[in-house]
């Protein structure tokens, strides 16, 4: 039987070496590439004659659609294994998280499966996002009452 020290030495010797630097570089470039595609879409929609607000909306919708499509086809998980956190930050990462949970639990029904599990992921983002927006709005309103305008 191994002592705790022997076990710790054995696991340290046989554990795979950390690839933090490589993972960070991959995440940076793949996440940056996703964002560059988004910028390319924004430029394309602008060139097609859409005003800035509509071009931004179409860009977001397109990236969400692509994220959901890649999730449904099983490709987003493969990309995430390579890119790590690089696929979590862009809008496609949120689309993947919500759609993956919906796809996984669809067999449990529309309400208790698809709906409930989808909002398990999205719920916290929606709640905290709404709270933060309300808080920031209240702060800006109070500042405006005192004559301070930031925007």
Features:
mainly alpha; extended; single chain; 151 residues
Strand content: under 5%
Counting DSSP H or I runs of 4 or more residues, the number of helices is 6
Q: How many β-strands, per DSSP? A: 0
Mean pLDDT: 85
User: Helical content, roughly?
Assistant: over 70%
| Oligomer description | single chain
Element order: H for helix, E for strand: HHHHHH
Shape: extended
Structural class: mainly alpha
Unreliable parts: none
Distance between the termini: 69 Å
Largest sheet report: none
Instruction: Give me the Rg, rounded.
Output: 22 Å
Written overview of the protein:
- It is a single chain.
- The chain is an all-alpha fold and 151 residues long.
- It has a domain at 20-104.
- Helix content is 79%, strand content 0%.
- It has helices at residues 4-14, 20-47, 52-72, 75-83, 91-104, 110-145.
- The radius of gyration is 22 Å and the shape is extended.
- 14% of the residues are buried.
- The mean pLDDT is 85.
Summarize the structure.
The protein is mainly alpha-helical and 151 residues long. It has helices at residues 4-14, 20-47, 52-72, 75-83, 91-104, 110-145.
What's the structural blueprint in terms of helices and strands?
Elements: H1 4-14, H2 20-47, H3 52-72, H4 75-83, H5 91-104, H6 110-145
Helix pairs in contact: 2-3, 3-5, 5-6
């Amino acid at each position: 039987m191994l002592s705790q020290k022997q076990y710790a030495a054995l696991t340290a010797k046989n554990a795979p070496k950390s690839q933090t630097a490589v993972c960070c570089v991959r995440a940076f470039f793949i996440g940056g590439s996703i964002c560059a595609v988004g910028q390319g879409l924004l430029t394309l929609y602008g060139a097609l004659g859409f005003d800035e607000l509509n071009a931004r909306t179409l860009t977001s919708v397109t990236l969400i659609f692509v994220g959901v499509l890649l999730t449904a086809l099983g490709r987003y998980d493969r990309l995430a294994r390579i890119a790590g956190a690089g696929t979590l930050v862009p809008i496609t990462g949120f689309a993947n998280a919500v759609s993956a949970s919906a796809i996984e639990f669809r067999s449990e029904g529309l309400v208790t499966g698809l709906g409930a599990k989808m909002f398990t992921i999205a719920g916290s983002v929606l709640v905290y996002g709404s709270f933060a927006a309300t808080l920031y709005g209240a702060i800006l309103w109070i500042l405006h009452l005192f004559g301070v305008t930031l925007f």
